[in-house]
Amino acid sequence: MPASAIDLDHVIDKVRTTGYAVLPGVLSPEETRRIRETLHRLSELDDETYGVERLIGMRQRGALRNLAAADDVFHGLLETSSALDVVDAFLGPQGILNCFDALILFPGQGRYPWDYHTDLMDVTGVSFPPNRIPGVNILYFFDRVREENGATWVVPGSHLTLADEPDPEVMAPLSVPLEVEPGDAVVFDARIWHCAGTNGTDMPRALIKTLFTAPWYRPQMDFTRAVPEDVLTRLSPRARRYLNVHNVPPTTVDELRWRLSHGDAVNAEEAKVDKADKVAEV
Fold first, then answer.
1. Segment holding 208, helix H or strand E
2. 49 and 187 Cβ atoms separated by less than 8 Å
3. pTM of the full structure
4. DSSP 8-class letter at 18
């Protein structure tokens, strides 16, 4: 990974204006296959563990959470995916992971057209400076997706609206389906209004959602505790940064004072450089 390069400037322009951009062939066919197989294995295990009816009652069937801790096959999506360049372009070095989930839409499931939402509902309708974006979502697809099997519907340009509860009847005719191929990704401003379609086929369709936000927005989970330490230590500095490893609040006065004097949320690599500089000075 990546299987194809990204025209970063073009993608940034598309996201700024329409709110989203399709990234063809971000994942290689082999990686797409491996991740898809792992997702369905984990989904079957989830059904066995919690029970299908219980998961349906909670509206959680097919929602696989905290993928960073689930299997190493997912780690490339936090380390080497070319789509991450889009995240960093918008959020800079302080962007963190809000959620890392798979969403499998089973036959007969769907929310279109009554469940329009944004991925940052807490700030929906809030005005931001034109050059600021509070969150970036990347969806990775592992099946050929069309309207009939539950394509995600987005409302182009709606990331710029200040409306906090738009009428679904108004949104529906403005929506377009995200029709993609296996291995494609879609990146969008997390404020864009969208909803899942209905899967009218006899086969499930799978995607992975990686939502990144500015560091002031609270993540869905405390990944520093939700991901085992032995997994965290194997991840690259980039992935560890997304998982907020270096932005955990200090627990002692000494640590607080050190951070205040060296810059808050300083990461381990910066700390090593600072220590090396001190040694050189001596």
1. strand 205-213
2. no
3. 0.89
4. H
